[in-house]
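Why do we bother with holo predictions? Because pocket geometry can differ from the apo form. Keep that in mind while you read this record for dinuclear copper ion.
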Amino acid sequence: MGPATVAQSALDPAGPQAAQLSHLWWVMFWVCTAVFLVVMASVATAVRRRPSEPTPDRVLTGSVAFGVGATVAILFGLLVISFVTGRAVASTVDAGAVTIAVTGQQWWWNVEYVDPNAPSLRVHTANEIHIPVGRPVVFNLASRDVIHSFWVPNLHGKRDLIPGYQTSFWLQADRPGVYRGQCAEFCGHQHAWMALYVTAESDAEFKGWLAAQRRPAVEPSSDITRQGRDLFLKSTCTQCHTVRGTIAGAVSGPDLTHVASRGSLAAGILSNTRGHIERWVRDPQQVKPGNRMPPNAMSDDELGALSTYLESLK
Ligand code: CUA
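The structure, written out:
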């Protein structure tokens, strides 16, 4: 549905934070596997012993003492390593890193590139995040309605987004790629369709992408796109969406200024094609029942013009 090769696995870490968590997982996995095998072997030995040969009390006491001691030591060891991992992933990075504010809402991700030095350079996008490879990126996370959880398994662990509370972490991608993320906390009807994509790319590609996102929407260059834009601006679209450079400035739905530059629609549910745009605009409830966008009754010609306009918003 999204870009061609997409990674989504906590066991294939693409950065230091995810590597810490994956390391912790493998340590726990192998320790628990060893414990399981030892316990099963002990059970097998015990059931094969004949009742005519009772275990001496000394051996019994010794075995229980060993079992208790080993359990305490193993649990303490796991506690220490998970504490150390927790400290490592909770570390902070210097100010000046790329900072992205992500707000979860039913059922999509609002993404804002923050620039403390120049508020005018802030840009909004939705469900697709671009980051530079090899540099730490700070995420400031919040929710607008219910509890969501931001999770891009190849890059970091889950982080719950609690309404009214901002949380923050950093991550870094060590190799380019497209990493799929998913809301990891049940948040209502379309929780399973609250996906996002993180594209990690070279610094130059990232800067080029961000510069393009900062530009206002392109002006229509043909009659049909002009007709589509006029339709957009006089319809209910403007009550929820922003297209920078026009009078549309509402923020309850995704920013559409560069919607055509995105690979997917509706938080990862549809690839961004002409047919899908038309299907979505005409009846979003049929594609993603329960979402906040109402159906739009319009003629085929009007829908065609509107879709042509949206497709021009590169
Ligand atoms: Cu948002 Cu589940």
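The chain has three domains: 16-89, 98-214, 223-312.
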